[in-house]
């Protein structure tokens, strides 16, 4: 059994019959995320929920199968959300992003999957905004309040001061330096949003994924030398 709100009939805190589970991915080498097929006892309609393992020690219970448990599984897993049209996307965020940026990227990808290009671009811009603000020093030549506030001007400053790799400058032209790239006016096309997505993905990879992979590789190398 699983207790959750039913997205089909609106019943709150209703009991579902949990009939099947599929492992979707694992986080931190132990935290399992599952999609579980459930049937509401109020409206008898099915829903697939995304749930996550609560504690490290619950792996055995999950491996044995949540449908086999005779009690509500809410003590073992947390209900994240139900699976809907927003999950019809092939765009996955880069690895090792900060949680807030990771969630915003996923929201942007979900918007892209249902054709909401302006909303998607706004989410990807927000990813860039959060990621690049942390790169700014407290004070520097040419770094005024307007540059700090405006994403397009901030990117130009970061490129000009060799804080961002020059190889990404051409891709960054999808973010206009006057801030008027269409996202706020609601006039972006699918191609426009795809350009912003591409730049966002590559920049986030450079800032977060590649350094973390290097760190992990260094840790493995150190561990091998220690064993040797």
UniProtKB/TrEMBL annotation:
It comes from Halomonas shengliensis. InterPro entries: DUF4145 (IPR025285). Residues 110-200 form the DUF4145 domain. It comes from the Bacteria. Pfam families: DUF4145. This is DUF4145 domain-containing protein.
């Amino acid at each position: 059994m699983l207790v959750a709100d039913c997205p089909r009939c609106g019943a709150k805190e209703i009991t579902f019959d949990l009939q099947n589970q599929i492992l979707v991915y694992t986080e931190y080498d132990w935290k399992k995320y599952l999609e579980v097929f459930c049937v509401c006892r109020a409206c008898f309609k099915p829903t697939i929920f995304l749930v996550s393992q609560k504690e490290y020690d619950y792996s055995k219970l999950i491996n044995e199968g949540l449908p086999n448990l005779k009690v509500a599984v809410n003590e073992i897993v947390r209900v994240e959300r139900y699976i809907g049209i927003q999950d019809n996307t092939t765009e996955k965020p880069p690895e090792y992003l900060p949680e807030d940026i990771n969630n915003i990227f996923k929201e942007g990808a979900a918007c892209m999957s249902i054709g909401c290009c302006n909303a998607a671009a706004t989410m990807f811009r927000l990813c860039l905004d959060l990621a690049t603000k942390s790169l700014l020093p407290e004070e520097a030549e040419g770094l005024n309040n307007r540059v700090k506030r405006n994403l397009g001007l901030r990117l130009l400053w970061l490129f000009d001061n060799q804080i961002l790799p020059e190889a990404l400058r051409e891709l960054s032209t999808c973010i206009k330096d006057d801030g008027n790239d269409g996202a706020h006016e609601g006039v972006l096309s699918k191609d426009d949003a795809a350009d912003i997505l591409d730049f966002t993905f590559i920049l986030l990879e450079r800032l977060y994924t590649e350094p973390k992979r290097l760190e992990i590789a260094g840790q493995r190398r150190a561990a091998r030398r220690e064993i040797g």
